[in-house]
Amino acid sequence: MVAPRACYAGLLCISGPVFRRRPHAGGSRGGESGTGGHISTEPRINERIRVPEVRLVGPNGEQVGIVAINDALRLAQEADLDLVEVAPTARPPVCKLMDYGKFKYESALKARESRKHQAQTVIKEIKLRPKIDPHDYGTKRGHVERFLRQGDKVKVTIMFRGREQSRPDLGYRLLQRLAGDVEELGFVESQPKQDGRNMIMVIGPHKRKPDSKADRAAPRPGPRAAAAEPAAPRTAPAEPAAPRAAAPADRPVPSPRPPRAAGPHVVAAAKPAGNSADAATGT
Length: 283
Prior knowledge:
The structure is a single chain. This protein is an alpha+beta fold. Among the domains are: 46-102, Ubiquitin-like (UB roll), CATH 3.10.20.80; 123-205, Translation initiation factor 3 (IF-3), C-terminal domain (Translation Initiation Factor IF3, 2-Layer Sandwich). It contains eight helices and ten strands. A four-stranded mixed β-sheet has the order 4-3-6-5. Strands 7-8-10-9 form a four-stranded mixed β-sheet, covered by helices on one side. It has a two-stranded antiparallel ribbon with strand order 1-2. The N and C termini lie far apart (174 Å).
């Protein structure tokens, strides 16, 4: 507590005690955490079990009975195992001797496998107008068929504007037409209903039938098996064409042509060399 004194010109001096607020025991009001801590979801093990006696279960599932907590801890230590509280709400609590690290690892594997086999359903949405063009309607219908083949649900929304709100029958007929076009792939899960300015209908995919045991047991022919099968017999080759008829033996054989007569230039070139020398001397 502090008692300040304030004096102002033209005013009386005012003095008095000033009280300060003490902080709250649980922390400030600005959202800070108080004395409470995080609540653990893991089971209590070993020295964290604070009860005088427990119902003990052996590592192989055998019933040991109700024993004191100190005796249970001693048995766990002798077996080199952990004392895990598996049923804390029972009276007395049920504890089991086990390897807690291995138990957590196997539990995580089981949870992962269960999540892997879960069917995750996704809802797709398609929006239409009451006066949609035929080509646009075909495109939207193709999207709906593709979603249904993938195993997803489809939420079809008809949007009304202006005076179209006074004609909800247009949207209803359009939804019924779409449901009839895709009835081989899905069924109407939620009938058309008015939601403000929109009309909504939900279409769900058909559940696929699991394959029978005979179909699963029958081996499917692979590429090697197909190659091993004997090929179909080929057709017999066509007979060769008959040889052409030989020329008749009595056909006259043409006689060889006579040799050509040598020309004057050839004769001059064939004269002996002596005659040419005599001509050159003039004898």
